[in-house]
Structures are given as C-alpha cells and as structure tokens.
C-alpha cells in the first residue's frame, strides 16, 4: 500500500467517502447526469433557438463550468468538510465566505422543489409506458395526455413524495453504500440506451431538419437573456455554484487527479446531453411537434419515436426507468448538501438531517408540483412557483455562487495553495493545466459571469 492509500484508509474510517478512483468518477458523473441532460437541455435548446444556444452553452461549460468544478472539488478535498464549514476552515477570520455554503443550501432546496416534481412525471410515465397507453403517434393526443398527467393535483403530489421517500432512503444509507453503489450500476446502461435511441431517431424522415436545428447556428436568436440561460444551464448541468461539488469533493480520494476527473465528467456529461438532443430533435420534426414545446418536449417526443419502432414498448419502459434512475443520482447529490452540513455542523444523525430536509422540500415543493394545475394562477414576479424556483436557482443563485467561488479561489486563497492542491502536492506534473485553470478562475470566469448576469437581468 502506498502512503497515499494508507492515508485514504485512515480518512475513510473517520468520515465516509468514495472508495475508488472509478467510484469518484461515476458518483460525480451521477450527480452531473440527470434530468438536466434528458429533460432540460433539449427543451432549453428548443425554446432558445437551437444551435446558437448550444454553442453558447459549450463555451460557458468550458470557460466557466469546468474551472469552477475543479475549484469546488479542490476546496472540498482539501478540507474534508461540508459546503459551509469548508470556508470556516480555510478563512476562519472571514465569516463572509460561508455565504457560499448557505446560498448553496438554499439553491439546493429550490432546485429540489421542482426537480423532484419532474422526476415524479418520469416515474408516472414508466407506468404509462408499461400499460401501453403511450403507444400512439398522434401529436395532439400526446400533448393532451401529458397535460392531464401533470395537472392532476393528487398524483402530482404523490409522485413527488414517492421520489423524496425513495431518495431520502438511499441517502440514509450513506456515501459509499448509497450514492456510489447506485451510480456504478446505472451510467453504462443509460449511455447504451441513448445510443440505440439515437440510431433509431437518425433513421426517421425528419432527421435532417432535426440535426440542422441542433447543429447549424442561427445567431439572430442569441440575446442576452439566452446567454444567461445557457450559463445557468452550464452551472446546473455540472452541479456547481451550489455546494454539491464542494461536498462531493470532500469525499474524493487524496490521489485523485482533480482536473482530469472534472474534464472526464464534463465530457461524458456533454456527450449524454448531445445524445439526448440527437434522439429528440429528429423526432420533433418527424412527428410535427414544435421545438418550442418546452418542459413537455421529452415526454412527447420519446414515446413517439418508440411507438413507431418494433418492440418500442419495451424500450420505452426502459428509457423512462433509466431517466428516473439518472434523476435519482442527481437528487442524491442535491440532498447531500444540506444533509452533510446539518450532520456536521449541528451534530445531528444522518437520519434526522435527511428526514428534516425531505420534509422541508415536500412543503416547499408542493406549490411547484401544483403549478401545472390547481396552483397555476399562484405567481411570483409573473412566474409560477415551478418556473420561479427554476429561474432563481439556475439563472441567479448558481451564477452568483460560481462568481463568489471564483473570487475566493482566484483572489483570496491564492496561487501557491491552488498549485499544491491541484498537483496533489507536486506529485502530478500538471503545471500548465493548473496555471490555465487558475487564470480562468482569477480573471476570465468572474468577469464573464458579471457581464452575463448584469446583461441577462437587464441591469444595463
Ligand atoms: N446536474 C443535475 C442534472 O443535470 C442537476 C443538479 C444540479 C444536481 C445541481 C445537483 C446540483 O440533472
């Protein structure tokens, strides 16, 4: 056993953590991959004009997402603490920085408020797929069916609670036996199924139009608001700006090569989103849906693709099962932020912290769950609760959290420390990478975030 492995072992006995390099990779990927890829990415690409949006999103991922993800996991691993205590440990005399952890917890709760609802729709669609009631190729019938599903108040709440109970149960099992174990089994199958779906979609008659929409940019549609949405998506996708990667970083192994791990997670996550786009947009154009159909998009198009293919029902069931499982990996990582903070800061048991968090989300999430029916007329700033939670978290809290993180890493803790952390105290020969990441975090990312935020919110 190398000295690093021995050190890892001792760490593991004091505090739960991921058990292998591969475990770190899949668990982190399990957080990144979720409804963001399969539900949000396609529908935002559709409503924001297609390839132009995709290009801005790619740039945001490279220039903002990747460096912030590296910065977050680095802080977590260096301190082995939760999203709030990390800053207390590193700068005890500057309590201000704990705000990153607190806004992160708030963002996590808001995201969970609507995310668990969408996951609930996915669970409901598993049963619809099983019953065969989704096997029709008619666009307006599919739309009516989706609307009826999400408008029913009782089932909306019941599915959300089912999702919360299930994920709360896994979280109680802990980091290695819960989170890591689930992620390991899931990712490869999801990837394979998406590939099958893409092949099928590419042989549809609307494939050309779909691919053109996804890959031929039309910059006339790229406004400041569209750019802010793309940046918000980049943060949401990589689970950054809100404490998840800070917390997961604290479970990383000491010998983990952080920049390489983050790069791999980013690439795999991006591939899954692109596969989802390639699966969905040809179907949109073939079956006469509109790219602007919004949050309903995946629930309309995927059944249409499968309905037209031999053995489609089996694949349809499998698809919704896997999407549900992918959403679980992401929900676990969202829950882990408050749960880790509550257990470590208030010395609560994991059980108690989880139960309280789940209860709070059930309360906070109820108006979001009812936003498509009973509570459709309850609005804040003209948005339903569902849209409000989504907008405030993705387009506001995550970019602000990311900005504060850039300033903290780039200006407060400084280059030598970052150099030592990201090179695993000189064991890795990755000086050029570290310099690049540091320069981005210090100069480029914060300036870009400020401009995008101010322009997107129409401050100037
Ligand atoms: N990244 C997840 C997804 O794309 C969502 C998420 C956001 C998870 C923030 C954790 C934290 O579905």
In words, what does this structure look like?
- Helices cover 77% and strands 1% of the residues.
- With 460 residues, it is mainly α.
- The N and C termini lie far apart (58 Å).
- Helix 4 packs across helix 17, helix 8 packs across helix 9 and helix 9 packs antiparallel against helix 15.
- The chain has one domain: Amino acid/polyamine transporter I (Up-down Bundle).
- Bound molecules: phenylalanine (PHE).
- The site of phenylalanine (PHE) has 15 residues, from helix 2, helix 3, helix 11 and helix 15.
Question: How many individual domains?
Answer: 1
Number of strands: 2
Q: Count of DSSP helices? A: 19
Query: Residue share in helices?
Result: over 70%
In this structure, how is the largest beta sheet organized? 2 strands, antiparallel
CATH H-tier superfamily = Amino acid/polyamine transporter I
Bound compounds, each kind once, are:
phenylalanine
Report how far apart the termini are: 58 Å
Name the poorly predicted regions: 1-13
By CATH, the topology is: Amino acid/polyamine transporter I
The amount of beta strand, in percent, is under 5%
Q: Pairing-aware structural class of the strands and helices?
A: mainly alpha
Give me some keywords for this one.
disordered N terminus, Amino acid/polyamine transporter I, mainly alpha, two-stranded antiparallel sheet, single chain, binds phenylalanine, 460 residues
List the SSEs and their pairings:
Layout: H1 3-14, H2 21-32, H3 35-47, H4 51-79, H5 85-90, H6 98-131, H7 139-151, H8 153-173, H9 175-202, H10 207-215, H11 224-237, H12 244-249, H13 258-286, H14 297-307, H15 312-346, H16 350-369, E1 379-380, E2 383-384, H17 385-413, H18 415-422, H19 431-456
Helix pairs in contact: 2-9, 2-13, 2-15, 3-11, 3-13, 4-11, 4-13, 4-17, 4-19, 6-8, 6-15, 6-16, 6-17, 7-14, 8-9, 8-15, 8-16, 9-13, 9-15, 10-13, 11-17, 11-19, 13-14, 14-15, 15-16, 16-17, 17-18, 17-19, 18-19
Bound molecules: phenylalanine.
